[in-house]
Design brief:
With 103 residues, the chain is an alpha+beta fold. The protein has helices spanning 48-57, 62-100; strands at 3-14, 17-26, 31-36. β2 and β3 form a beta hairpin.
Length: 103
């Protein structure tokens, strides 16, 4: 089955998940609704044109907010990895200290 879809302006929540409503039509002409939570370009492919078209579909300010959140999430991820490394290092030091003290 193939579906040709077009984004609408309608944003909604479906089973607790934010989605955009898209209107579609199958290759046999049957109309349908599509509830899209995420869209992405496969890793390694140029997403420039895709990002430009997607930006045109988002309400004003939402694209910038999404980009900001993406950067913030990456920074938090790095902070968590650093913290996890430090905890691991401290656990190793405590284990060595316990071995040396005979415990």
């Amino acid at each position: 089955m193939r579906i040709e879809m077009e984004a609408t302006e309608r944003l909604m929540e479906l089973e607790g998940v934010p989605v955009r409503l898209w209107e579609g039509r199958t290759d046999r002409g049957v109309r349908c609704l599509v509830f899209v939570h995420r869209l992405a370009v496969p890793p390694g492919e140029d997403s420039t044109e895709f990002d430009r078209e997607l930006c045109a579909q988002l309400p004003p300010g939402l694209w910038e907010e999404a980009q900001s959140l993406r950067a913030e999430n990456e920074a938090l991820r790095e902070d968590l990895l650093t913290l996890a490394r430090r905890v691991h290092e401290q656990a190793e030091l405590l284990a060595r200290a316990a071995e040396q003290s005979g415990g």
